[in-house]
Design brief:
The protein is mainly alpha-helical. It is 65% helix and 9% strand. It has two domains: 2-54, no CATH class; 73-277, Four Helix Bundle (Hemerythrin (Met), subunit A) (Up-down Bundle), CATH 1.20.120.1630. The chain has a three-stranded antiparallel β-sheet, with helices on one face. A two-stranded antiparallel sheet has the order 4-5. β1 (2-10) and β2 form a beta hairpin.
Length: 287
């Protein structure tokens, strides 16, 4: 126990008293007073109370911030992607039933495509549940909205909006070519997601500079894979509303790429060297 402060106090009768405070490491402050120590005691109690309230408020803010981060950047994105997984599993079940009734290479290819797409979606679900906070983030509302819309617009259109009139009737040869394109796209998406690992995100975020696997071919192979799948599906089922949605998604992906590269360039000094080696952003020999 040690003495830490001594106060001189003056009471109403002008008598001067002393108050000495003693603190023990494991107990509350104790008062040893002469004549009047009440004023000093009040000040000390009020200061202690304010400090306790400040600590409790700070702890509550930290907890609220942590919970908000978990909801915004972990649970909600993982839940949204899990919804897409369930939707794709339902499509896979329907395609397997069709394969049982009308066996053929085209229906089998559609089943393989759906199964690979489910596998692809499992990678970002795992990433959102396990990845660490990013080193940098582009928090602009328009950029975030563009990224979310690019990820979920076609699914929302397919579920909520009538497809509209069919624009053309594809030939069997065109259907086979489009199916091959979608299979190549979904296979590229799976390999790219595996290479990206825990760095997957909706909006632009900087966790690590990925330069392995398909990222040596183009700087944004997952977006290339998604566009290949979109084009393949639109060729087979060319209806007006999904086609308009597909065009919107491609434009949003271009906006997304610009924002991501701006963030990566400012976060990772090696990005300029990587961009010099991997010259094309999205389509080899084109852009």
């Amino acid at each position: 126990m040690q003495q830490v402060r001594r106060y001189g106090t003056t009471g109403p009768n002008n008598r001067v008293g002393t108050a000495c405070y003693w603190f023990d490491a494991e107990t509350s402050p104790m008062l040893s007073e002469g004549v009047l120590g009440n004023q000093s005691t009040t000040l000390m109690v009020e200061a202690s109370t304010r400090a306790t309230v400040s600590r409790n408020t700070s702890a509550a803010r930290r907890i609220a911030g942590r919970v908000g981060w978990l909801l915004t950047y972990r649970l909600l994105p993982a839940a949204a992607l899990s919804g897409l997984v369930l939707w794709q599993l339902m499509a896979l079940v329907s395609e397997l039933q069709q394969l049982n009734v009308h066996p053929g290479w085209v229906v089998l290819g559609e089943c393989v495509r759906s199964a690979l797409y489910v596998l692809f979606l499992c990678f970002p679900v795992a990433a959102f549940l396990t990845h660490e906070p990013p080193r940098s983030r582009d928090g602009r509302v328009l950029v975030t909205c563009a990224a979310i819309a690019a990820s979920f617009l076609l699914a929302g259109v397919g579920l909520l909006v009538p497809g509209g009139p069919q624009l053309w009737r594809p030939s069997p040869e065109l259907v086979s070519t489009a199916l091959a394109l979608t299979l190549a796209g979904v296979a590229l998406a799976v390999v790219s997601a595996q290479a990206l690992g825990g760095s997957f995100s909706f909006g632009p975020q900087g966790r690590a500079l990925i330069v392995r696997g398909p990222y040596r071919l183009v700087r944004h192979p997952i977006y290339l894979a998604e566009i290949a799948m979109i084009v393949g599906v639109m060729v087979v089922n060319p209806r007006l509303v999904p086609l308009a949605g597909a065009c919107a998604v491609i434009v949003l992906q271009l906006v997304r790429i610009r924002a991501e590269e701006r963030l990566l360039r400012s976060t990772f000094p090696g990005f300029s060297s990587y961009a010099a080696v991997t010259r094309y952003r999205l389509v080899p020999f084109l852009w």
